[in-house]
UniProtKB/TrEMBL annotation:
One matching Pfam family: Lipase_GDSL_2
UniProt signal peptide: 1-30
Species classification: Bacteria, Pseudomonadati, Pseudomonadota, Gammaproteobacteria, Lysobacterales
Keywords (A to Z) from UniProt: Signal
Record-linked InterPro entries: Ester_Hydrolysis_Enzymes, Lipase_GDSL_AS, SGNH_hydro, SGNH_hydro_sf, TAT_signal
Highest taxon, organism lineage: Bacteria
Protein name stated in the entry: Arylesterase
Biological-process GO terms, alphabetical: lipid metabolic process
Domain SGNH hydrolase-type esterase: 47-206
UniProt entry tagged with the keyword Signal: yes
């Protein structure tokens, strides 16, 4: 069932944001292509994240994105995962890469899981908002569904920044009308044993719980973008 229309002012602001995405993308528009040159007809789920999604300190098959791909192959064989996450990535880096990534892969779904490195660097929240908004707008412009994945930061950053950081993700999800998974590490955040020695990156043992957590928010999008049994 379609969601109720937003107030006129909000719709106007959203239209302006999408128009900006059109102006950015239009000069580079090309025919859709698969990453392998045209042989793979499965629809793409594109993940754009940082080291938490790139599987820092883990083997290639241990990260939550790899585990998600295994489940997707079983339940949604018409879709595949492209993990475009980079260790150390920021929202500015994702914003700079997003146009090329969505034009190349033409994803059905884009999972945006960035922001942690921005907070650790004390990035002003309006910049975080602008970077993530550009990523969402560019993804929607090529017809992709978007799952926005948030983070929560430790209180030592100050209560105003911590609350504002979380609020930024909620505002973006509301403005662009996309689902929000508020905290990527929710299932393991309170378990010190589930983190590597740096106390920042989850261990291999933590990855199945993270994958299951993301799946709860992703599966409804896959039902629309990649029906079960397709492929």
């Amino acid at each position: 069932m379609p969601r109720p229309l937003r107030p006129a002012r909000r719709m106007l602001l959203r239209a302006c944001g999408l128009l900006l995405a059109v102006l950015v993308l239009a000069p580079a528009m090309a025919a859709p292509q698969s990453a392998d040159g045209g042989g793979d007809t499965r629809r793409t789920v594109l993940v754009m994240g940082d080291s938490l999604s790139a599987g820092y300190g883990l083997s290639a098959d241990q990260g939550w994105v790899a585990l998600l791909e295994l489940r997707m192959a079983r339940d949604f064989p018409g879709c595949r995962v492209v993990n475009a996450s980079i260790s150390g990535e920021t929202s500015a880096g994702g914003s700079a890469r997003v146009v090329g990534e969505v034009l190349h892969h033409r994803p059905a779904v884009v999972v945006i899981a960035l922001g942690a490195n921005d907070a650790l660097r004390g990035l002003p929240l309006p910049e975080l908002h602008r970077n993530l908004a550009r990523m969402i707008g560019a993804s929607q412009h090529v017809g992709a569904e978007v799952l926005l994945v948030g983070m929560r930061m430790p209180p030592n950053l100050g209560p105003d920044y911590t609350r504002g950081f979380e609020r930024t993700f909620r505002q973006l999800a509301d403005f662009f009308d996309v689902p929000l998974l508020p905290f990527l590490l929710e299932p393991v955040a309170a378990e010190r044993a589930k983190f590597q020695e740096d106390n920042l990156h989850p261990t291999a043992a933590a990855q199945p719980a993270i994958a299951a957590h993301v799946w709860t928010a992703l599966a409804p999008l896959l039902d629309t973008a990649c029906p079960r049994g397709a492929g």
